[in-house]
Design a protein that fits this description.
The protein is mainly alpha-helical and about 270 residues long. About 70% of the residues lie in helices and about 0% in strands.
């Protein structure tokens, strides 16, 4: 008979309680979300608090459903201490990869802005918006038409035109830098990965796909989909896919380490 294990139960209670407290307005949840470390909104405690936060009820439901279904099986196998260590390890790994990817992308954008500032040109301005991750194609085309009026002035070094476009570039850069990240998804993806490794032949019946599929087939497909979506950065997609991949990657590393060397911390 299926049962919710102890650590999973407490994680479930904490996540649901924090969500409800935030929903009724007893606490301001924004300072608890994870911001990029160069953002003025970043605080060190966010490295822990963000993975107890959720954006909406659906986000909470899917994460907690996966926590109960996969986490309970892993805790029953590993025991509470090892499971809790694994959960936090994956959550921090998710934050690390997500932050690293953001640093890579934001650094590229900052370099583009600096190049434009050093040698202003219409082509550099247009390429910045065209290559900006997740920037809607329709918005880019509309913006390109709007920028056409500045083309000659920018190429001729007209300061007012140069600075007008620079303001737009900085606004877009800061809008990405200051987007918060929330959710237990990174830790949950670590659980999914571990479940797939330890119970590869268990058949999963998914809510959105009511057909039994073995874990060893579904988990790799899910990870490949996350990588595809993360790399392409579609404008309609506001999910932190590299956080998911970070949780899965760190989960993979820890499971393989334990399989080879065991645990050296007494659990």
């Amino acid at each position: 008979m299926f049962r919710i294990t102890e650590v999973v139960k407490y994680l479930l209670i904490i996540n649901v309680a924090i969500f409800l407290i935030g929903e009724i307005g007893l606490i301001n949840t924004r300072p608890l979300s994870l911001f990029f470390f160069e953002s003025p909104f970043f605080h060190s405690w966010q490295l822990v608090t963000h993975f107890f936060m959720h954006a909406n009820l659906m986000h909470l439901f899917f994460n907690m459903f996966a926590l109960v279904m996969f986490g309970s099986a892993l805790e029953a196998r590993w025991g509470p201490k090892r499971f809790l260590f694994f959960y936090f390890f994956c959550a921090f790994g998710a934050a690390a990869l997500h932050t690293g990817y953001n640093y890579y992308e934001l650094n590229k954008q900052k370099q583009s802005i600096n190049r434009y500032l050093e040698e202003p040109s219409f082509d550099l301005a247009v390429s910045f918006f065209r290559e900006f991750p997740g920037f809607p194609k329709k918005s880019y085309l509309e913006l390109r038409d709007d920028l056409e009026e500045y083309a000659d002035a920018i190429d001729n070094g007209d300061r007012k035109s140069v600075m007008s476009v620079l303001t737009l570039m900085n606004q877009l850069y800061h809008s990405r830098r200051d987007v918060p990240t929330v959710g237990a998804s990174g830790a949950v993806y670590g659980l999914l990965l571990a479940f797939g490794l330890l119970f590869p032949n268990v058949e999963l019946m998914l809510i959105f796909l009511p057909i039994p599929i073995k874990a060893k087939y579904f988990i790799p497909f899910l990870m490949a989909a996350e990588l595809f979506l993360g790399i392409n950065n579609f404008s309609w997609d506001n999910i932190a896919h590299f956080a998911h991949l970070g949780g899965a990657l760190f989960g993979l590393i820890l499971v393989l380490y334990w399989q080879k060397y065991g645990s050296r911390w007494g659990y």
